[in-house]
Amino acid sequence: MYNARSSTLIRRFWGQTKIDFALKTRADPASQGDTHIVFYRPRNFHASTSNIKLYPSHSVCRSLNTHPFRMRYASSTASARAFPDPRTIGIVRETFGKWERRAPLAPKHVQALAQKGIKVLVQPSFRRAYPDSAYAAAGASIQEDLLPASLILGVKQVPVSALLPERTYMMFAHVLKGQLENMPLLDAIRRLKIRLLDYECITETGDRGGARTVFFGRFAGMAGMVDILQGLGQNLLARGYNTPFLNSPYTYMHPGLDAAKAGVRALGGKVATEGLPREICPLVVAFTGRGRVAQGAQEVFELLPHEWVEVKDLPALVASAQGEGGREGGREGKALQRKVYGVRVEEKDMVERMSTEQAVPQASVQSIDPPTPSSSPSYARDEYRLHPERYRPIFHERVAPYVSVLVNGIYWDQRYPRLLTKAQMKELWHSGLKGGGR
Length: 438
What we know:
- The strands form 5 sheets. This protein has a 6-stranded parallel beta sheet.
- The chain is built from 11 helices and 18 strands.
- The chain has helices at residues 76-82, 107-115, 132-137, 183-191, 218-238, 257-274, 292-301, 314-322, 381-386, 395-398, 422-431, and strands spanning 8-12, 18-23, 35-40, 55-56, 62-65, 70-73, 85-91, 119-122, 141-142, 149-153, 168-171, 195-198, 284-288, 306-309, 340-345, 351-353, 391-393, 405-408.
- Helices cover 25% and strands 18% of the residues.
- The chain folds into 3 domains: 8-79, no CATH class; 84-201, Rossmann fold; 222-350 and 394-431, no CATH class.
């Protein structure tokens, strides 16, 4: 037996086809404990250790000098990476955002999986909405090591340094549109031979363009709108206006949805009784999109004293705040200061069809056809979806000058005109928005 080091234990299984070596941490400073190494024994293996030749069982190896011979070894990490358990799921600790508390599975889901014989490993977290104890009670194993898991679930992007090779990951990776900031993540996923299941691509039918099953929904819209109110208060304070919005806490400060809604109602009560500074009135909130996010945001907005208006009415609304005698002599007087205004912006308010002279020719696009008889001359929904290059943006001309807050809930990719560019924002700011610069 080889016993050159007291810290090295060699166990030879002569009746099997492998030899196990257990080396202490000091043999491998990079390890976090004992390193378990497995080598396969050739059929003609001899007992002599003076000229021993060992064959590693895994391709991921590194050199370690030990007396009296050098051996190639595979660490326990490499071993686990090569052989994950197909019936084990891992849940990562969210690290992308410091306020992130969401989890891909709730304890009740873990319990249902455990009853079916599926093991769930959960990385401990103090931020997660569900405590570790709830997962443990549901049957999960709370541990840092997710190496045995073949499927690893997260909400947001997993750091490149934490990715495990040859696993399946489910998360919002934010790489589908070629987001530059996440290209290193995509490169690492390819390099490590990871299978990525992006929530954005999961549909009911499995077809591209089908109804998504995992998406930002009503709660995302509500949380976003609550945060917008606090952001609005800070923005107005920086411009010299003290408003009730400053007293609206961020979403993460509320213990639950009911408390958040109660806070917005209390804020609305102050708006109705104390009013807003006349210099920022009418305060108009524009909503784009018809989906769940937009609906959730509007649900919170309607907790405030409010009035809905049409896009076409915005110029008159702002003009009424000033009136012939200036701001103090407006048509509705202080009524404008005791509520907020909402406007739902449709697609036809965002773009209009370009003339033939304005259109930019493209090799893949045929000559511009006239709009269908049943549609507006300046906008046809079906045509816009098929040929967005035939349209130009008009939001910055017809809507943005009258708006105090924009709640954007539309889908966008590079085929379509941008809703509002940085250059347009800069121009609006310097030229002065309608109604005195909101």
